[in-house]
Amino acid sequence: MKFIFSQLATLLQENTRRANTRLLLKFFFLLFLFISFYSILFHLLMLYEGQQYSWITGFYWTLTVMSTLGFGDITFHSDIGRFFSVIVLINGIVLLLIILPFTFIQFFYAPWLEAQNKARAPRGVPDTVSGHVILTYFDNVAANMIERFVQYGIPYVVLIQNLQHALELHDLGYDIVVGDLDSPDTYRKLRVNHATMVVVLNSDITSTNIVFTIREISNKIKIISNADMENSVDILELAGSTHVFQFTRLLGNALARRVLGGSMTANIIGRFDELLIAEAPAMRTPLQGKTLAESNLRQITGVNIVGIWERGLFQTPTADTQIGESSVLLLAGNEEQLDNYDRLIGRLGYGEMSKAPVVILGGGRVGQAVGEDLKKRDVDYRIVEKNIGIGLKDKHFIHGDASDLNTLIKAGINDTPSIIITTHNDDLNIYLTIYCRRLRPDSQIISRASLDRNVNTLHRAGANLVLSYSSLCTTTTMNLLKPENIVMLSEGLNVFRNHLNHEFVNKSLVELKIRENTGCSVIAVKRNNKVLVNPDPTMRLKKSDELILIGSGKAEKNFCKRFAV
After folding, report:
1. CB of 392 closer than 8 Å to CB of 363
2. Which domains, from first to last, does the chain contain?
3. Sites in the chain below the pLDDT cut of 50
């Protein structure tokens, strides 16, 4: 009962709801007048027929007829009495069965239900919350970020403007807050001054308003925003964004970086103090066809191979791992060691590279970014685009359907070393991957995935490498969020640091067998503020040493569970 009365009190607090309640009471009063009037007429007509009933009976008859129950125990015998009964019956249907339910739902139940829903959806975060990440938009990218936040124990909250959408996310287990995106009061309730970061992934115009509004409250909070249009970068920076990314352009650059038709030198994809992480294709280098032991890469350059991409699958290499034509090496070393790799290994494949253009399927923002990156590297390319309004006078564009064989032949698919599929539709990407793999079994196929769940499907369809848009956004955000503890690479690979449990101190890496037991590789040891890149496996670890490792999220969990403090 206390709960019901408290809800009623809440309903009566707002002016609109008080007005609705007054309208409902007026309707009940009108209904009472009709019932009373019909009861009086009932008595008069009954007296006209020579029958006499009490006033209670009159109310009883009126209610049974108006509610269509019609027990039939009291009836009129004259035509005028029966006509009166029909009038009461029709009036009862309209008032009790149509208007009353509608009025009750519209002016009482719906506001009460809305109050219930608003009570379920938080309007702010508790005063004890700090160090949290605020997201102002929810989509597949945000869902991917939240999954990583949960994995690393980072508190978060999603700001949703639409109440119904917020309740749906709340029921799915997400931490949400309902509020207006352009209201300073909303961000005060979100404790933005105590947050670690705000991630703004809305449209460019909405994002500008959000960033500018947040800057009214806090000048220090780190704000990450995405710009769909080139012109929006400067505007978002002027509004107050700490970092503005064009994630579609970043994805295009990442796709172009993995093309076999370009440079064989190492491409840096991550930094960790003095330690650099890079990728390098093995195609037509002296490493192709050799095992890791036969390559003597560490002895020659000082660089360590900490992973290998093979037809889209990442594997932790051993001494017997074969380096194939489609292998992409994941290298760890300092700047000098990577320069040695480029000079002694990477540049040896230049003269033998295919002169045929790279074929890019899709001329949207990602496809154009791929083309611009390849152009900077002096790699020829052709973009197949169905929309004739895009790249109309550009010689690199081939207008036509990507599933049309003649169009693909015109673009150079018979000779191309690499095919890059960049459309934002995963279904179409899978379709084109299967088709292109049938046409060119020997060509490298790189595909974009908008949703993480389609990455494996694209691999099975024949793609050598798949890059996920949502993973790229998550990786970039996480690297800014915790740069001192973790660097996330593409495809779910992490570089992270940790101290050993005291029981493993004074043991060598060989004795610990970290790679065999966890799937992680030790790529550096930080000792006395100096980073020892690619440490000797026989080096004994000290208590103050900090290990820098690489591995998947699962491998990181295995290490923390078994070896970490």
Report:
1. no
2. 2-120 (1.10.287.70), 133-245 (3.40.50.720), 263-352 (3.30.70.1450), 500-562 (3.30.70.1450)
3. 1-8, 11-12, 350-352
